[in-house]
Amino acid sequence: MEHPTLPDYHLIEQLDYVDFYSNSTGDTLIARFKESSVIDLEMAKESLDLIREYKKDRPTYGITDASPKFLDFTADARNYYRENMIKGETIIHAIVVEDMATKILANIFARFDKPKVSTRVFTSIHDAVQWIEDAKM
């Protein structure tokens, strides 16, 4: 199955709250969170473990598609993702949100929580993919 808007990305794993997609070379992963999900610490651990298992110690580019409505990450989940996304495993990270207001909030998170990986926020999955493709050059 392909990503709903990115035909070059195929489904690699599904959980109740997130679908994971990868491109054909396996160097870019998308975590597409599902609508009306509340991501807690256990979910954060499960999803990051799954990503690490898939990557098999090769560096990758990451996209978190957090654009579905009514999506929330608990403080523990956000802290876990921040502390456990290790530079060298993930080269750069894009976050996709639904609208400009959410983008502002996500940028505040990125500035104050200081992710260990270079992170940028977008309102378009296509813009996020383009940023990553440009970084590969």
Please characterize this protein's 3D structure.
With 137 residues, the chain is of the alpha/beta class. The protein has helices spanning 41-55, 75-84, 100-113, 125-136, and strands at residues 9-14, 18-23, 28-33, 38-39, 60-65, 72-73, 90-96, 118-122. It has one domain. The chain has four helices and eight strands; from the N terminus they run E-E-E-E-H-E-E-H-E-H-E-H. It has a six-stranded mixed sheet, sandwiched between helices. Strand 1 (9-14) and strand 2 (18-23) form a beta hairpin. The model has no long low-confidence stretch (mean pLDDT 86).
Sum up the structure in keywords.
4 helices, 137 residues, 6-stranded mixed beta sheet, two-stranded parallel ribbon, alpha/beta
Strand order of the largest sheet: 1-2-3-5-7-8
Largest sheet: 6 strands, mixed
SSE run: EEEEHEEHEHEH
Kindly give the count of domains.
1
List unreliable stretches of 5+ residues: none
Helix proportion range: 25-40%
Strand % is 25-35%
Radius of gyration: 14 Å
The chain-level structural class is alpha/beta
How many β-strands, per DSSP? 8
What's the average pLDDT? 86
How many distinct helices?
4
Question: What is the 3D form?
Answer: globular
Distance between the termini: 28 Å
